[in-house]
Specification:
By secondary structure, this protein is of the alpha+beta class. It folds into two domains: 33 residues; 120 residues, no CATH class. The strands form two sheets. It has a six-stranded antiparallel beta sheet, with helices on one face. The longest helix is centred in the N-terminal third of the chain and has 31 residues.
Length: 166
Amino acid sequence: MKIRYLYLQKTTAKKIIMFSLGLLMLVWVAGCSQNFGRIHWDENVTQSFETNQIEPDYNFYQYTIGMRVFAIVGLDQKLELQSRIWRQLETDTEDFKVATSRIWYNYTATPEEPRGAVIVNPEGEKVGVYFSSLRFFSIKFKPQNQVALLLDTSPITGGPGDRRVH
């Protein structure tokens, strides 16, 4: 009797594991089919932000908490940002220079300096630029040229919620 009971437990455990893996794959495939853009790190973008010589064809936004600027994004003028967190940033003002100079430096176990990136839409077309030391950034494209920006600021990935922030 014990042998049969153990065999039943093993086959049940295998079925649960296989079901869980199948469900995980389904969620992963469903997530990949969403309208998310990508970023590609680019030293030219980094230099353009550091020298305040950015492309004038974009609308710029900043993600700030208090005096800290965590990220700056420039988006194609055709796109409409859907957010209450990101504030518009005018490029021809002193505020833009101050924002780029105050960009947050990530002081976690693996320090990251602010870097620039090109933002591309799901079709691979360039639609913007990104500047931050936070490496986990997503852009979701919605109907009617609306976009949502998702910035990972969790302490687990070394975001500003980390206790080691200086």
